């Protein structure tokens, strides 16, 4: 059976699921769940995604992801490898943790943003062993469930730093007490009434959306991939910054010569900043950056992660990076 098509473009929305191999559990304890969320945050930071909702179950997970850079494949590859490596190390095991690749449904956010978020947040009570609970017990169970983003929608205090609730809550009046209460009522309606899964809309073609949205996607992207197993990333390039301009700005800001920052053995922080800016604003993939700078793509990923860690510790470095960003961002042209 052929793999489902991967459709990628800037600011796309996806419902993503990963299931344990042969139905096995992917979390042994709460330490694993915390590690999962920490690694999710790290991958989100590296690949500049937006996490709109999530839920962790015993043998599978659901994510609602927006990709401003059109890079779902890179994000999920990095994240799944990171958690699998952690889990295998922690529990002295080998082999695959997940059942094949992740599954991703492209979502028509104009029509199904609210529905998909509710579907994810209702997951903890949809498992079979929770069905005997009455309505009140189900409502209480959802509110108390630790491993979901639902608590972050009901209270700012229960929200993880990487969670983006603004887009969904905007449909209910915003991220304020009134908007949060309305969203809670919306989710509770899904408990009491018969609600079909929005995922059913995507069966067969992998797109959760109205017919107009599906035809638009088919016309713009799928027709270009006829005969291939997988569509490569489809990204806008008009707003990208010339790599040479990025180099000039970084060299000027950090007082380093061009040949130095491009030298493989250069140890200064400017090299990591260059890699980050080429990825974020130059439209280059990590493999392309590595080839240009004489290293493999994994080294580029490591350098970008180190830079992220350094920024948290060094305020002057963060200020310098922000200054470079303002100078090279396309909007400043």
Task: Please tell me about this protein's structure.
This protein is α+β, with helices and mostly antiparallel strands and 333 residues long. It has two domains: 12-225, Transposase IS200-like (Alpha-Beta Plaits), CATH 3.30.70; 243-332, Chromosomal Replication Initiator Protein Dnaa, Chain: A, CATH 1.10.1750. Helix content is 50%, strand content 9%. The protein has 14 helices and five strands. Strands 2-3-1-4-5 form a five-stranded mixed β-sheet, sandwiched between helices. A hairpin with a 3-residue loop joins β2 (50-56) and β3 (60-67).
Shape: globular
The pLDDT mean sits at 85
Helical fraction: 40-55%
Task: Provide the spatial order of strands within the biggest beta sheet.
Answer: 2-3-1-4-5
State the end-to-end distance. Answer: 47 Å
Number of helices: 14
Low-confidence stretches: 224-239
CATH architecture annotation of the largest domain? 2-Layer Sandwich
Sheet with most strands = 5 strands, mixed
CATH-assigned fold name of the largest domain = Alpha-Beta Plaits
CATH homologous superfamily caption of the largest domain: Transposase IS200-like
The number of distinct structural domains comes to 2
What fraction strand?
Answer: 5-15%
The whole-angstrom Rg is 21 Å
Structural class: alpha+beta
